[in-house]
Amino acid sequence: MNLKYLKNRHIKYDWKTIFVGVQENYFTKDVISDYAVELMEIGDESEFVSELAWGVSSEDLDKVMLEIKTNYFPHLDGDSTILAEENRKLRFVCLSGIKEKYKVDHELLNEIAEFYGNHNYPEDMVSFVNYTPQEVPTTKEDMVNRFDKFLKLESVRFS
Description:
Shape: elongated
Structural class: mainly alpha
Number of strands: 0
Largest sheet: none
Strand content: under 5%
Helix content: 55-70%
Number of domains: 2
Radius of gyration: 18 Å
């Protein structure tokens, strides 16, 4: 995923979004440079942003991530509700992309299940993950409908 996905859904983003996105593997480290370039284009001439625009090496990623946190949101810790909301925003964008890409129910549900497993098993997704026990007898169609409802609610949240 890259910043284009957020722009296409009119989702606002900032350094917190970039930080969480890289930390949670929604983005590669290259998004840090992409965002720095965007900031420079709108007039940010800070030395830190200029350095980031040239790229971030894998060896420097941990240091850069710490500098981003220190420079832009030092008061937030890892359990911050603000950072959790950024994660939720990114999850919405990623799941929306999955919904657009997979039109066959079983393929869609398999991709959702893979996402669920790769992103720390979010509790609010259990009702549409095909390998989790369901409270009531459930068909693929039921799970897809629950997923659609979930995406609609998330869409309202982030629009």
